[in-house]
Design brief:
The radius of gyration is 24 Å and the shape is globular. The chain has a three-stranded antiparallel β-sheet with strand order 1-4-5. The relative contact order is 0.09. By secondary structure, it is of the alpha+beta class. Helix content is about 45%, strand content about 15%. Strand 6 and strand 7 form a beta hairpin. The protein has three domains: about 70 residues, Ubiquitin-like (UB roll); about 80 residues, no CATH class; about 160 residues, no CATH class.
């Protein structure tokens, strides 16, 4: 790759030369690994035009960090600062009022606007209310008492731009986006099953209603065990999800997108010190499941309903499916025959 170079107009101090000198700015491809993910970014690197040594210039360094941050958000699917600004404008709401509406600390959104990286769950929640006004409307009706009268009127004015049919259809749009992503031809990585959104939703509702407390970490394992157990017994999974091996055990591929898209419509997500808790307000619909699927849900629920998330994660680490699958790779349902549950 051709290296682009240019001379800066202003001079900067070079420690090697011990004086202010001309600076040559070179564009280079920099590779960074952040939380196990490799990011390639074109950055500007300043060098002394006299001796050739690298020079530190605060503003250029900050600009490079912003570029790396931006690329990391793109690669990992995290919400961009510009998208948060779009959200505030879309619903005519301030940063602090939005934080309160979401049940977060009032300085959370202001910090995100200054560049702080949101966690996966918060990022997906913000993205879900951008693409789905129905979700925001439900959230507003539930928590508007936390806002001032003036803030409420501003939001109500913004929501008036969406007619009732748009609000009702928006939830279908969010579900359809999940269907488009997860729908694959039946194969050994989705349990030989075409993805079924309603069975995924109701599997989550089943476990959330059954367990005394269920966090996302635990829910991910419950979904995996029920899909694997059903496949072991019938050669078909329940949901058609694909699962990935990560440090905390098996998880649905891009699981944060699932919870972010479906929350506020089927369940609430509560951020706690222990993790993200799922609290459902919808009833489980057993009519959409086969007898084999219901039995798998029941057996997994009875086995693990009183287990803590950490216990279940540790237990899943002993499964051959987890042991023999490389980090971040998809887990084959061929391992179902060796699942510890029968």
């Amino acid at each position: 790759m051709e290296i682009r170079r240019r001379i800066l107009e202003e001079q900067h101090y070079c420690h090697q030369c011990n004086c202010d000198t001309q600076v040559e700015l070179r564009e280079e491809l920099q590779k960074d690994t952040i939380k196990g993910i490799t990011i390639n970014t074109l950055v500007n690197v300043p060098f002394c035009a006299n001796c050739g040594s690298e020079i530190y210039i605060a503003k250029i360094n900050d600009d490079n960090l912003d570029k790396i941050n931006y690329n990391y958000r793109i690669v990992t699917g995290r919400i961009l600062v510009s998208e948060i600004e779009q959200l505030l404008e879309m619903y005519n709401i301030g940063a602090k009022p939005l934080s309160l509406l979401l049940g977060w600390g009032e300085c959370t959104i202001p910090r995100y606007l200054t560049g702080q990286m949101p966690n996966v769950e918060n990022s997906e929640k913000l993205k879900s209310i951008i693409r789905n006004p129905y979700v925001f409307n439900e959230l507003f009706n539930k928590n508007k008492h936390k806002l001032t009268n003036i803030a409420q009127k501003k939001v109500e004015g913004a929501l008036a731009n969406y007619d009732v049919s748009t609000l009702n259809e928006a939830n279908e749009i969010a579900e359809n986006s999940l269907i488009q992503f997860y729908s694959k031809n039946p194969n050994i990585y989705n349990g030989m099953k075409t993805f079924e959104i309603k069975k995924l939703i109701n599997s989550i509702l089943y476990f959330a209603n059954l367990c005394r407390e269920v966090y996302i970490t635990k829910m991910n394992k419950l979904l995996w065990y029920s899909d694997m157990l059903c496949f072991k017994r019938s050669s078909f999974s329940i949901t058609g999800l694909q699962y990935q091996r990560i440090n905390y055990g098996p998880v649905p591929l891009k699981y944060y997108w699932i919870y972010g898209s479906l929350s506020e419509t089927y369940f609430n997500l509560e951020i706690t010190e222990s993790g993200t808790k799922i609290q459902t307000f919808r009833e489980f619909d057993e009519s959409i499941f086969s007898k084999e699927e219901l039995q798998a849900l029941f057996d997994v629920g009875q086995k693990f309903k009183n287990w803590y998330a950490g216990e279940l994660s540790g237990y899943s680490h002993n499964e051959r499916a987890y042991i023999e699958t490389n980090h971040r790779e998809l887990i084959s349902f061929n391992y179902a025959k060796e699942l510890s549950l029968n």
